[in-house]
Structure prediction request, 476 residues.
Amino acid sequence: MTAPRTLYEKIVDSHNVLTLSGEGRDATILLYIDRTVLNEYTSPQAFSGLREHGRKAWRPQAALGVVDHVNSTAPLRTNHVDDADAQKQIDYFATNGKDFNIEMFDVLDARQGIEHVVLPELGLVQPGMVIAAGDSHTTTYGAFGSIGFGIGTSDIEHLLATQTLPYRPLKNMRASVRGQTPAGVTAKDIIMHLIRTIGADGAAGHALELDGDAIQALDVEGRMTICNMAVECGARVALMAPDAKVYVYVSGRPRSPSPELLERAKASWAELYSDPDAHFDREVVIDAADIAPTVTWGTSPDQAASIDQATPYPHEMPQAKQADATRALSYMGLASGLPLADVKIDHAFIGSCTNGRISDLRDAARVLKGRQIADGVRAIVSPGSSSVRRQAEAEGLDRIFKDAGFEWRQSGCSMCLAMNDDVLSAGERCASSTNRNFEGRQGSGGRTHLMSPAMVAAAAVMGRLTDVRKLPALEI
Ligand SMILES: CC(C)[C@H](C(=O)O)[C@@H](O)C(=O)O
Ligand code: SF4
Prediction:
């Protein structure tokens, strides 16, 4: 009988080419990578490295590149941007695609979008895979029971040249979210609550498996939101055991394997769960009933609270957190003891690989239907991919957003990290469906409050952070 293994260990074992050094838990192995994801921002040096060393891409068909970080989201955008550096990245990316025989989607491609939205919607993420990308939010793919992790530029070069990576397996951690979430609580609230509970380094050095009835109850897109943001509590890999919902999601998409192959794959997918006695180095249990709509008040994703709470008094916090909290409140321009529901906003942003999928847009549109954003608020929505945008338009969601006063833009990372023209001005405060609220993340001096898309919509309507469950009823 083999020793019980975690889901993470099973997938690592099945991709272990050979042991490079050490043994047991200290071994460094050579890990086979099924898919490589590239973007224009983190891949250039890797390609330059390949050129310098005279190397080719060993398995170009395993890689896909998408322009997403620096591109414009203007409704009538072209392949050209004003920023010369960004233009260079976009052009070099296209050249690299041609020279190395790798498929690349430029901004005008009908399949363009944020890489972590595009891969799953094409059917390129299947259970049991190992996927690496030059981007930390590659953890998103854990929603399918596949290992996804971010790598640096020199690793991208190694990966393209060999389709493998030297790899030190991670420790195992499990977070179980038990019971039922209260009405109005979304996947985003679950992950923000977990991050707030265990801290921004709570899962550092671990592969984080999430299970429990509250996770099983989520649709696949909600699960992606959670795995995406798991990196904000330090997890290098997030994982959820795949189930029938995942099987349905991964079939019938433009790049899904054939129905026959999928049928055969299901036999091995059925093994993708942690054995009952598998060892976890760390375990936490969250009671789903405790979770409320959550917003950040600070400059780290764990500086968060329920919307019905107030900003903290740093001296009442654990010693180790006081200095950061004081600095964060000052950067955010917030006094202590201020009810979060009194915090006024200037901006609202819906999009990103955390919450830019069709279900996220539907959630926000449900709140906005028949309502108007508050005077003085600027609100934009950037669908996670061009195909999400088309789907939303087919459902009439664009009209709801526009009628409410939102700008309906093209897809890309956009204001999630403000590498294009979608930037906050210093001092501006934004309700944002994104995943990072670091200082300057959405523009130098800009202030970010993270929350779910429905909560962003509610904040846009009220002009201040708002419990979406308490929005005044529509006058009909
Ligand atoms: C630009 C890229 C390196 C970065 C990441 O790795 O996550 C970005 O996507 C982000 O969200 O901060
Ligand atoms: S949308 Fe944001 S988090 Fe996602 S890849 Fe782009 S910048 Fe990173």
Observations:
- The chain has a mean pLDDT of 97.
- The longest strand covers residues 171-178.
